[in-house]
């Protein structure tokens, strides 16, 4: 399989890059990401493979966003992180204007590493907090304590412009009081950005088998909805914008990197399990770390899946993913970017979803020169999820793409 490479004009290359770092101290019971736990002896080999993958790419113009996710990138030692950023620098450049995000476990920010992160250009930190409740953390098999979160945020403040906190809700036996306390604590710490996820039981995880054995119970739908409404209410009342189904941000602190995904723009994904989207092509690298290493070490492409979407498929996907953004999609923008109207993409499903009250279309006067009478008569429209649709987004997306 030939590796996917776009044209070599640096100005037309993607300006966003995701790098996957698949190492964790241990695997949490609910996690199904591509990673290994307790196998740190593989880090150097992984960095060497990543270097080879990066070296296959053309030299790029300055990046808009660089995102290091995992796994746990902060689990790498200072020296390994310097090596990682140096190899990324072989083909990409970033400045203070680039959003450089590093995902971190609070436990890795207990000693002051602010000089290191500042030197590397990291200006946004995404902390896997999940909860401030010791019992809930224990159920989730997390290895940090609430106090360690406080210290981590304090340290992050020394170098990051933006601190994002991830929280999980609807954990077995969690009450609304525990969840409200988690939200309040995150607000108290002044997080500029929050991502809140409902716990899901993914096939292949420990939680999946424990649920099958009756050791863990899923929260009922009414409670999950109540918890989702609680977080929307609390965060928006405190000045955060609910800008994507699971994401909340203070003004000017939205995740620029994630908005690249939701807007259907191009990006590179590098490392095991990473996906990229370039010129209508989507590719995915080998998910298993060992397979990724073997492919690269034997001189082969790590991309194990690649497909070219037709323009209509690509537009349909852009519509489904774009609706995650709660500002909605303006039809005229959508048409000029994709060449298709909403109706071209999914007339029937959209009509059904609107009649079910999951989507709403809001007419908007078109901003056109007054000399063009025909166009003045037209109206533009914005399509967005309703409150009910936010909770049922997965079904909305499936309807549109199917
Ligand atoms: S720390 Fe994060 S990435 Fe690592 S196993 Fe736990 S949930 Fe998964």
Q: What brief labels describe this structure?
A:
single chain; 402 residues; alpha/beta; pyruvate-formate lyase- activating enzyme; Arc Repressor Mutant, subunit A; nine-stranded mixed beta sheet; 16 helices; binds iron/sulfur cluster
Number of helices: 16
Bound molecules: iron/sulfur cluster
Write down how many β-strands occur, each being a DSSP E stretch of 2 or more residues. 17
- Give the CA-CA distance, first to last residue: 28 Å
Question: Structural class, from secondary structure content?
Answer: alpha/beta
Averaged pLDDT: 93
Q: Strands of the biggest beta sheet: in what spatial order?
A: 9-10-8-7-6-5-4-1-11
Could you say what the CATH topology of the largest domain is called? pyruvate-formate lyase- activating enzyme
Give start-end ranges of low-pLDDT stretches: 373-377
Helix content: 25-40%
The total tally of domains equals 2
Q: Roughly what fraction of the amino acids lie in strands?
A: 15-25%
CATH architecture of the largest domain: Alpha-Beta Horseshoe
